[in-house]
């Protein structure tokens, strides 16, 4: 079976991501935070106390986290040594190759510490945990200034891991605090070449690529070779950060025996707007099974009202009578949501 190094685009050939140097947590600009391309922000959080602790040793990094611990429980993903940190489906895609449990964060950290020197440790991963819940006070000492944005700040803790390529709706700054990471990113239009799995049965909430990036089976997934031609790679050291634009696919590898990442998510849309994933799932329910001619008609309706709307197309309707076609407001969103719920509950 070929490896990525044997495929048409080896890691040395993958596109490098533009790097920005000399920034601090206080000097991020709106231009950077609205980029439509990924950016490496070298050394952005290198002066964080958490980063400095991890650079001294894994033990110091562990001790630094523990000083903020206040009896919090977290969702921990645990796998046997045989999965080699790749949290994924089981072989027949009827379940997963790991199990999830609620546990005290200090107990998870202790488990990681007990296996720190193992050649092949069990896979241990605490993903997407709200910092204020798990480690109150951490952000006061380690934070970014993002202007008027009100981001969700999360922490990710684990040993060596591989998280399959997926996308997120929000924009994202991922700060590598402890351990090294490798991100492999693809623009949204590479969807068809990434062989994405089920939409509603996923390891951690988001649909993922079914390709094993360490051993890509190009006979089973031939279009992945084309995806690699469009891939961007970021090799990240502690203190570096990566800006990941909304909807970009990203495969994430934690490369060291003790790894901590902090990320900030925010949307360039009002909070009252629902996730478009809901619209996708409703489309699966209501349109995917229609005859081709009807799907084409609905494609035109979506183009007209959603993807290429124009003021001219609404000029014949008085503004006060446009209702759902008027610019969306919080009150309008509430009305639409109520109408949808009423229809779905019939």
Automatic annotation (TrEMBL):
Annotated JmjC domain residues: 110-281
Organism placement in taxonomy: Bacteria, Pseudomonadati, Pseudomonadota, Betaproteobacteria, Burkholderiales
Protein name, entry field: Cupin-like domain-containing protein
Cross-referenced InterPro entries: Cupin_8 (IPR041667), JmjC_dom (IPR003347)
A Pfam family assignment: Cupin_8
């Amino acid at each position: 079976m070929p490896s990525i190094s044997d495929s048409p685009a080896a890691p040395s050939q993958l596109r490098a991501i533009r790097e920005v140097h000399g920034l601090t947590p206080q000097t991020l600009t709106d231009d950077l935070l609205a980029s439509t391309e990924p950016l490496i922000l070298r050394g952005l959080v290198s002066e964080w106390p958490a980063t400095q602790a991890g650079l001294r040793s894994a033990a110091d990094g562990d001790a630094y986290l523990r000083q903020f611990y206040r009896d919090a429980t977290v969702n921990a993903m645990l796998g046997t040594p045989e999965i080699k940190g790749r949290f994924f489906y089981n072989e027949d895609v009827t379940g997963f190759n790991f199990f999830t449990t609620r546990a005290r964060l200090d107990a998870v950290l202790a488990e990681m510490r007990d296996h720190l020197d193992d050649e092949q440790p069990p896979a241990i991963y605490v993903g997407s945990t709200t910092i204020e819940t798990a480690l109150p006070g951490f952000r006061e000492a380690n934070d970014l200034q993002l202007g008027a944005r009100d981001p969700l700040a999360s922490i990710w803790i684990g040993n060596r891991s591989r998280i399959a390529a997926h996308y997120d709706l929000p924009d994202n700054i991922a700060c590598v605090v402890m351990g090294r990471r490798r991100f492999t990113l693809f623009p949204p239009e590479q969807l068809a070449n990434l062989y994405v799995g089920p939409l509603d049965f996923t390891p951690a909430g988001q649909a993922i690529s079914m390709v094993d990036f360490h051993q890509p089976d190009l006979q089973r997934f031939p279009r992945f070779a084309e995806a690699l031609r469009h891939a961007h790679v970021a090799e990240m050291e502690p203190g570096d950060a990566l800006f990941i634009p909304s909807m970009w696919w990203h495969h994430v590898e934690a490369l060291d025996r003790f790894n901590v990442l902090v990320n900030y998510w925010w949307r360039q849309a009002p909070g009252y707007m629902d996730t478009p994933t809901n619209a996708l799932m409703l489309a699966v329910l209501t349109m995917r099974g229609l005859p081709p001619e009807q799907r084409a008609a609905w494609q035109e309706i979506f183009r007209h009202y959603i993807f290429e709307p124009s003021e001219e197309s609404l000029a014949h309707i008085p503004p006060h009578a446009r209702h759902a076609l008027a610019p969306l407001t919080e009150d309008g969103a509430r009305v639409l949501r109520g109408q949808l719920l009423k229809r779905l509950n019939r």
